[in-house]
Design brief:
There is one protein chain. The protein has six helices and eight strands. The chain is an alpha+beta fold and 255 residues long. The chain has three domains: 54 residues, no CATH class; 87 residues, PDZ domain (Pdz3 Domain, Roll); 73 residues, no CATH class. A hairpin with an 8-residue loop joins β5 and β6.
């Protein structure tokens, strides 16, 4: 641990763009934090100590990573991309199916896949043959089922009479679907309150995904008189001229 600590200290001394390290006494800081290394019992603790040391420079985009970390075996939970509630009979009602753009695997809403034929208001009666009345929670039957075919027994009424079976492939992450719902809700809200005159775009980050989201929502709204560009929660990245250049464009002629 001591060797790693001192090597990291030396790396910052030799390669930071400012040879004065923003005016800090770098040797003194090395000596201040060094006693903590003797108490380190895990690589995560060492990274924390090194991070505190480097943080004294007050320099952005400096990270500590790597090392021999144990790899926990995670069991992916299957998610249906829906909001459910339980009725008095123990069945699960599909109150809401999250919107999706199923041509994009990242935004695939499982219950909106072609052929699933499930609707809001339907009831889930069993999962892979397990009656849901026996489950403490529906997700109990979806442990380890993300990305794998699952058979649901569903019905428009909370009864097994007339029920049908359908096959769905659960996702392992609903967050992108909730984000899409939020964005689409904002687009609709702005459109309604401006009588269709103002557009809305949210840019989640300044990387590839963020630029894709910008292009996806920007071009369909070019005819608007104004555009709200929402960068709340932006994860950062590049200050992209690709966005600025498009926002600064002026029409040359109309046809």
């Amino acid at each position: 641990w001591s060797q790693i600590y001192h090597e990291c200290w030396r790396q910052m001394r030799d390669f930071v763009y400012d040879p004065h390290l923003h005016g800090v006494d770098w040797p003194a800081l090395r000596d201040r934090y060094a006693p903590l290394v003797a108490h380190v019992r895990h690589r995560a603790d060492l990274s924390y100590v090194i991070g505190e040391l480097i943080g004294e420079i007050n320099l952005g985009h400096c990270y500590v990573g790597g090392g021999d970390y144990p790899q926990a075996e995670r069991v992916p939970l299957g998610l249906l991309g829906a909001r459910l509630s339980r009725d008095a009979g123990g069945f699960f009602r599909i109150d809401e199916i999250l919107p999706g753009q199923n041509w994009d695997s990242r935004l695939r809403s499982p219950l909106r896949d072609v052929g699933v034929n499930v609707h809001e208001g339907d009831y889930i009666l069993s999962v892979d043959g397990r009656p849901v009345e026996e489950l403490a929670d529906l997700h109990e039957a979806l442990i380890g089922r993300a990305g794998r075919q699952v058979t649901l027994e569903v019905n428009a009424q909370p009864t097994r009479e007339g029920a049908r079976k359908t096959v769905v492939i659960p996702t392992d992450d609903e967050q992108p679907l909730h984000y899409l719902k939020w964005v689409l809700g904002n687009v609709e809200k702005v459109d309604q309150r401006s009588a269709g005159r103002v557009g809305y775009v949210h840019i989640p980050d300044m990387g590839v995904e963020g630029l894709n989201e910008f292009a996806k929502f920007y071009y369909p709204q070019l005819h608007k008189e104004a555009l709200i560009v929402d960068v709340r929660g932006n994860g950062g990245g590049n200050v992209s001229p690709m966005i600025i250049e498009r926002l600064r464009r002026e029409p040359v002629f109309w046809t």
